Amino acid sequence: MKEHKPGVNPLSWKWSGKPVNLLGPVLLFGLLVRIGYMIWASRYSPFFNGPIVDAALYHKWALEIYQGNWMGREAFYQAPLFPYLLGLIYSVFNPGPWAIRIIHGMMGLGNIFLVFVLSRTLLPPFWSAAAAWLCTLYPGFVFFENHLLSETLAVHLFLWALFFSVRAVQKETLLSWTVPGLFIGLSALTKPNTLLLLVFLTIWLIATGRKHFLNTLGKASVLMLMAALVILPVTLRNWLVGGDAALISTNGAMTFVHGNNPSAVGTLALPQGFSGNIETQKKEEIEVASSLSGRPLTHREARHYWFTSSLKFLLNHPRFTSRLELLKLWRMIGNYEYADNYNMHYDENPVRYFMPLPFALLFSLATWGMLKSGWGSAEEQVYGIFLLVPFMTMMIFYMTSRYRFPAVPILTIFAARGLQSVMTILKQRRWKDLLTAGMAVVPVMVISFWPIEKRDFEARQWISEGVALMQQGNFEKAVERFGHAAEKNPSEEGLWINMGNALHSMGKPEDAIQAYEKALKVKSDGPTALMLMGVAYGEMGRFAESEAYLMRALKEMPNSGEVHLYLSFLYNKTGRKDEAKFHLKTAEEQGIQAPASLRMSLSSD
């Protein structure tokens, strides 16, 4: 079995015979597991019709687009391409859970196809099919395809960008970098961290093309220009609509803070004062920063405050920073799939057992494949650049399986090369080389499989399911899920807040107050619990207690527009119109839109 030489042009082969025979079974298997997974999820998963966290925000955003609000009212807080695609799908097929999942499934099959095609530049057909099989057997693809998240679209665009970058390298013409620039721009509108590709590719082009500097500079300019043509309309829209010339989105500073604060351990770590709710994160970002700085801040000022504060903390604590980066590195090569929305390890879908490939095994094989690569060909170097982007993203921000996911398709190609090398060694009985391979792979495998994560996330999973059931109006089952979470970890963030909200929606304010009282013992949930207790007491007609709790909440969150709004409701009910007007005005200054009924009631006096 001969080692395959890089440089095959994937568009030059004839689509008949061996490649088709090898790829067909992989795609058929991929199709069947996707159908089976989707059918089971539609019947038994609370998340199928109940998106949470980012997925809930994307769904809400897409509904606004579906209803005609294409421009929005402020600068994008999150990258816009996926919710706009989702809104377009809703417009064509009507809002529902099926269309986007079917389209995601088609993209997933397309990703398998692209892995096969791309691997043909480095591997012969049999081992290219092996790369496609590894891609099919990794459960993350189907898992993310069945949630309203941007990961499937992001990886699909990322692979197309890689495909056309390899083609550009092989063509060696100036204009061949046009399409890679377009796809990198589109990918950045899905995941802004993809902009790192422009930096790395530009540096690589200049470093490898110094003998033809003007031509190389032209290639880099075409790449940057085409990406800019895709991105700059979004920047212009942010400036015209929101008065903020953010390049793509404005949540980057808080994402950086989430991974680099005194509580950080390499994964998502919320600073004090943040609920973890993406829909209120911008408001919390401004409120907490304003409180800490001692003056009201605009969102742009709050972003600057958070980023510089976090960066100063890292620079002033080099030992902590070094340990943190090592933890990120260990977690990113580890087997555990860290969740910030949905946890893959608690996926109950039985079809996942047909996709048993763990990340640790994939990474270990890929490590040997990368060690066996000479990295002398331009194609190999481009693969390395694209592989670097998700790992650099995690080093800058934090480890989550969503950030690691774009690396997986490229790792499958190198893992197939690793398998090819091992099989060649065994066939030729090169035992010394086999020992060398073992010495390289086994330590990586041990480190990757090592159970670094000791935390139990089961309670968080129960809470996520409960929130999804609340989205569907199934409050009784939601309370049941929250009860399971309480049995596992009664101090889990968000547990009692959500339990109280579910009980309140069931018309049980007394039980809701008991849940909120338990939330007071969870430090991060305390201020929100005070506010919600005030609301519950107000609805029960116990206005004195309502005012007391709302004032305590206001003391904890002086810049909270929501607390001011609820105080306005309370004072309007009790006839204290001047105070009601003051708090209404303050709430609106904080960006809260008050109901028209409240404004009319107060304006009539």
Defining key terms:
28 helices, mainly alpha, 0% strand, 605 residues, single chain
Sheet with the most strands?
A: none
Helical fraction: 55-70%
Low-confidence stretches: 1-5
- The count of DSSP E runs of length 2 or more, i.e. the number of strands, is 0
Tell me, briefly, the overall form: globular
> Which value, in Å, is the CA radius of gyration?
26 Å
Order of helices and strands: HHHHHHHHHHHHHHHHHHHHHHHHHHHH
Mean pLDDT: 90
Characterise this structure.
This protein is mostly helical and 605 residues long. Among the domains are: 342 residues, no CATH class; 73 residues, no CATH class. The protein is 69% helix and 0% strand. The N and C termini lie far apart (89 Å). The N terminus is likely disordered.
Secondary structure elements and their pairing?
Blueprint: H1 18-44, H2 53-66, H3 81-93, H4 97-119, H5 125-137, H6 140-145, H7 151-171, H8 178-188, H9 195-208, H10 213-242, H11 252-259, H12 278-293, H13 299-316, H14 318-333, H15 359-372, H16 378-396, H17 401-404, H18 407-427, H19 431-449, H20 458-471, H21 475-488, H22 495-505, H23 509-519, H24 526-539, H25 543-556, H26 561-573, H27 577-589, H28 596-603
Helix pairs in contact: 1-4, 1-5, 2-3, 4-5, 4-7, 4-18, 5-18, 7-8, 7-16, 8-10, 9-10, 9-16, 11-13, 12-13, 15-18, 15-19, 20-21, 21-22, 22-23, 22-24, 23-24, 24-25, 25-26, 26-27
